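Exercise 7.
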Amino acid sequence: TRCSTKLGDNKPEFAIDPTSSRCFKSNEEKNPWFRLDLGSARTIRSVEITTAPGYPIKNGYVVLNGATCASGVEIPADTTKEVACAGEATDHDIEVHMDGKDKKLGICTFRVSLDPEDEDAQDIVEEIEDLSAAEDDEEASVAQQLADEAADREEGCEFGGSNGGVCADES
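Solution. The predicted structure, written as tokens, is:
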């Protein structure tokens, strides 16, 4: 990710990090922009942008392969909006721009929706689904273990203690 400028330590990476509670913010400047490198050519359907509090996008536009694919983008501050921008990102980049003097750009979330026909996109979706399923299985296993431990505690069992997880009525 790259940007025209950043305000303090409000890095552009914050806009694509789902674990971050922070947002990318530019300095007040002329024509601020944000750019995401997709890593390889991708077929894009749309982008979802969540603006930072106090940072509306007014008269913004989205650029794909150096050409505008969405113009007149208006997103109020602290709001999420999906912006249609279909095409192949052959140069690997997708950008958000705002024209004008004394403008500032703030993005908390920037998600790219890939065309399901994009073979690489399908591989990525399958990897994400596999990871999600593994996390769900692990969460279910942990939840079941906690429920079992709670039930055993009610029955006078102790886990990790001196009796090694043996129930009191079994000794």
